[in-house]
UniProtKB/TrEMBL annotation, chain A:
It comes from Thalassotalea marina. Keywords: Cell inner membrane, Cell membrane, Membrane, Transmembrane, Transmembrane helix, Transport. It is found in: Cell inner membrane; Cell membrane. Belongs to the binding-protein-dependent transport system permease family. OppBC subfamily. This is Antimicrobial peptide ABC transporter permease SapB.
UniProtKB/TrEMBL annotation, chain B:
Pfam families: SBP_bac_5. It comes from the Bacteria. This is ABC transporter substrate-binding protein. One of its GO terms (cellular component) is outer membrane-bounded periplasmic space. The gene is sapA. GO terms for biological process: peptide transport. SUPFAM superfamilies: Periplasmic binding protein-like II (SSF53850). One of its GO terms (molecular function) is peptide transmembrane transporter activity.
Length: 327, 542
């Protein structure tokens, strides 16, 4: 986190243009206003002090104003980040419910045809570039078949007030008479981008789940269960799945960074109003304040998710908890 | 044991949830909202929501005929002048006094931010025109204080006075006769605003809201506007003519032309502006491709204040070097979408004259002229290509590349410059360009609308004359033509004016094109107009 703030702070020096304008986003300020901003950011003091002032601003949630829209960057991030979270969560969910069971099946059918087939498909799936897949999906499902919409989060027909930013929740708490229509519409909008994002992580989950399941199946307690005369079905459902799951969960967090990267690209193609789309627009428009703020927010978000998954892993796996106490 | 069942139950619950989501709840019974809403996928973000202040097609399309009305309007059938807010008018014999009789019981929009207490009267008309003319009016300098259309036609110099005769009668007195005056009042720019709303904004000290949260008398009212993303309009229930049967009209701002096509094919838009892949659209049984012969001109304009482009020989040389037929074939897809421009006037204009000097494609002549002008082989031209699609130029960047290749043959290297639209216009007004690919769509049928806004001296100062070319003889000819109502005399003046332009070559006319639009079959009504912006009045969805 510390390194991250140093990085974004130094970016404002490296970007072309005036450092003060880069960090605060005040490009059209009068000299008096500029002087005020200079004071606020400790312009007249040493770089260390300036960094300290910058940190102070960060802790107050002040990321400056966007050079383009002149709106506070923090507000813009808060209005775009939830859409990304929503998309990545749905994608993660799809990746998990598709990837993990398939991985388990591959493990159970270890070294058989099914296993090979699943493994080769997951390899192909992992190798497909996401932007190409996205375009292909639009071509097939939106243009040729006309089943699913190609852009946006919901049809503009529906007026949903942004409260939480997570559209599905906003729809449910809104007072529109067309709640279910809107809900449906939002669902059809999320399917395509979420599936596109989910493909690569799903293939990773396939392999993770397969490895985890194989190691569990190889363990002594499974052998003991077999010796007791339980059939495969009983062994898998009663003993193997939960134990294998624990190992998969640990890696879900690691996949999140990957997922967000994929989401950023996908958002642009599907015109999803998330942080990735916003950040890439900002990069196009050389909106330095927005780039700094966006990078910081996105990295902190991934950081927080990593910590959270570690906690979830710990709560699921008694061994992880135990080892902490032991060490 | 319990955990295993929990697992199973979890998956079962999950699959049922997915089923519910996919199957949806169509059985709700209520009519679908989208059945009565029209989504128009437009090509750009309006900078402001008041056509008095802008001539850009994006703003006009979004506001002029949706949010507002003018005193008079062009009849879409024969382009004659028809009543609108004024139910009738009277012109004195000397053409100097024009009296308008306003319609009774015309109501302004009622919105979350304004509730009108009285119908339209002469005060509102006075307020709207004084905003443009009267420098002491509070709103005159709000939102920039520039009224490009009115400045380009010399509106302030033309009007002697505007008087309110009674509540529903208003009289314009002109300093001199002007044969294009009525046509100018019928354009999209001469909208009528609410004085009462203006007074409310003065009280709350939010003057700029007059142009960003507009109140008008038009068939639709503003609900919500998010720049760069969408514009949501609602029908105006108390509209003086037939109120719209739509529930909503939404402008989905989609600058990418493939994006608009995709949205149309995927059913996310009902209408799209400036479609590409015309064949794909005509092949689709659910879609129709419409076009209207637009009165427009796409041109290459030179910045005549910048050396060496202030030398007409250099301008003519460049014009000689450009292969116009190739551009027409590539950019306008041949004859169906455009015709080559001989002069700035399209053939359908009554003042059109093909007896005008033209520039032929000849590399030798170009080289000769460049040599005469003393230009070596190191001339670099910063060619600005507009970033948006317009009917008069559907793809300026590609056109710029073609010109780049053409000019390479005569030893001129071209640098193509483009910015986002708002920035582009701003820098263009500052004169940072050497040459620019731009165009003009006429606002009314009077030929003056091609000359004055594009090439007059007045327009060079404030308006759309981005060549900054100013020629007194030319301006005098335009003026003489406006002073008379004799059609033959006017024709002759315009012929002479066209010849001056052809000789001086401040701009090189490229093409007159049709304006296209694609829409779903179930949308009934005429949206495209030959003049000015689109109109959703009377559009229905079945």
């Amino acid at each position: 986190m510390f390194i991250l703030t140093i990085l974004t702070f130094s970016l404002s020096f490296f970007f072309p243009g005036e450092h003060l304008a880069n960090i605060s986003g005040q490009i059209n300020a009068t000299p008096e206003q500029l002087e005020l901003v200079a004071l606020e950011y400790g312009k007249h003091e040493s770089v260390l002090y300036q960094y300290w002032y910058y940190l102070n601003h960060l802790f107050q949630g002040n990321l400056g104003v966007s050079m383009n829209s002149q709106l506070p960057v923090a507000d813009e991030i808060m209005s775009h980040l939830p859409a990304t979270i929503e998309l990545t969560l749905v994608a993660l969910f799809i990746a998990m419910i598709a990837g993990i069971p398939i991985g388990f099946i591959a493990a159970i059918r270890h070294r058989k045809k099914t296993d090979n087939l699943i493994l080769s498909f997951s390899m192909i799936g992992y190798s497909i570039p996401v932007f190409w897949l996205a375009l292909l999906a639009i071509l097939v499902f939106s243009i040729q078949l006309g089943w699913l919409p190609s852009a946006g989060q919901i049809s503009l027909v529906y007026e949903i007030e942004q409260v939480t930013g997570i559209l599905f929740i906003d729809i449910l708490i809104s007072d529109t008479p067309y709640k279910w229509q809107a809900f449906n519409n939002a669902t059809t909008h999320i399917i395509l981008p979420a599936c596109v994002i989910a493909l690569a992580p799903a293939t990773i989950f396939v392999r993770l789940a397969r490895t985890a399941m194989l190691s569990v199946l190889d363990s002594h307690y499974i052998k003991a269960a077999m010796a007791k005369g339980l059939n495969t079905r009983q062994i898998v459902f009663r003993h193997a799945i939960r134990n294998a799951m624990v190992n998969v969960i640990r890696d879900v967090g690691l996949q999140f960074a990957n997922l967000v990267t994929l989401a950023m690209v996908t958002e642009v193609i599907f015109n999803w109003p998330g942080i990735g789309n916003w950040l890439i627009q900002s990069i196009y428009q050389r909106d330095y304040t927005a780039i700094q703020g966006g990078l910081l927010a996105l990295s902190s978000f991934i950081f927080i998710v990593h910590i959270l998954t570690d906690f979830i892993y710990a709560s699921l796996n008694p061994l992880a908890r135990g080892s902490k106490h032991a060490s | 044991m319990a955990t295993n069942f929990a697992n199973l139950r979890f998956y079962r619950w999950l699959s049922s949830l997915v089923l519910v989501l996919i199957a949806g709840c169509d059985s709700q019974g209520t009519a679908s909202l989208s059945e009565n809403s029209v989504i128009y996928c437009s090509e750009g973000t309006p900078a402001i929501l008041n056509p008095q202040l802008e001539t850009s097609g994006v703003t006009i399309d979004a506001t002029a005929k949706q949010l507002y009305n003018q005193l008079i309007a062009f009849d879409p059938k024969d382009n004659s002048i028809a009543p609108s807010l004024a139910k009738s008018w009277h012109v004195t014999k000397d053409n100097k006094k024009i009296t308008f009789y306003l319609r009774q019981n015309v109501f302004f929009h009622q919105t979350e931010y304004f509730t009108p207490t009285r119908p339209l009267n002469a005060d509102d008309v006075l307020f709207s025109f004084n905003r443009i003319l009267d420098r002491t009016q509070v709103f005159h300098y709000v939102s920039g204080g520039k009224y490009p259309f009115f400045q380009s036609v010399g509106f302030a110099e033309l009007i002697e006075s505007i008087e309110r005769i009674n509540d529903h009668t208003i009289r314009f007195t002109l300093k001199r006769a002007d044969s294009s005056f009525l046509a100018n009042l019928a354009t999209d720019f001469a909208v009528i605003l609410s004085k009462e709303y203006g007074e409310q904004l003065i009280k709350t000290n939010e003057l700029e809201k007059l142009d960003t949260q507009p109140i008008g008398t038009g068939p639709f009212k503003l609900k919500e506007y998010r720049a760069g993303s969408y514009l949501r309009l609602m029908p105006h229930d108390n509209y003086w003519a037939t109120p719209s049967s739509l529930k909503q009209l939404i402008y989905d701002i989609t600058p990418s032309n493939t994006g608009r096509l995709t949205k149309l094919l995927a059913g996310e838009c009902d209408v799209i502006a400036y479609p590409i892949a015309h064949q794909k659209i005509t092949e689709n049984p659910l879609l129709t491709l419409e076009s209207v012969t637009a009165m427009n001109i796409g041109y290459l304009g030179f910045n005549t204040t910048k050396p060496p482009f202030n030398d007409k020989r250099v301008r003519r040389a460049i014009a000689h070097a450009i292969n116009k037929p190739a551009i027409l074939n590539t950019i306008y897809k041949g004859d169906s979408a455009a015709e080559p421009a001989v002069s700035i006037l399209p053939p359908s204009s009554w003042a059109y004259n093909d007896n005008v000097d033209t520039i032929d494609y000849s590399i030798d002549k170009a080289k000769d002229l460049l040599e005469q002008a003393g230009i070596g082989s190191d001339l670099t031209l910063n060619l600005w290509a507009m970033p948006v699609q317009r009917s008069y130029n559907p793809d300026a960047v590609t056109m710029a590349k073609l010109i780049q290749a053409d000019l390479k043959k005569v030893g001129i290297s071209v640098k193509i410059v483009t910015y986002n639209w708002q920035e582009f216009l701003r820098r263009l007004a500052l004169g940072e360009h050497d040459a620019v690919l731009l165009g003009w769509s006429a606002d009314h049928p009077d030929p003056d609308n091609f000359f004055s806004p594009l090439l007059s001296c007045a327009s060079a100062e404030t308006g759309n004359n981005r060549t900054f070319w100013c020629n007194e003889t030319f301006d005098d000819l335009l003026q003489s033509s406006l002073d008379t109502t004799d059609m033959n005399a006017r024709r002759e003046y315009y012929r002479q004016a066209l010849n001056i332009v052809a000789d001086e070559m401040p701009l090189f006319p490229i093409a007159h094109s049709k304006r296209f639009q694609a829409k779903k079959h179930n949308l009934k009504g005429n949206i495209l107009r030959s003049y000015g912006g689109i109109s959703f009045e009377g559009v229905e969805k079945h």
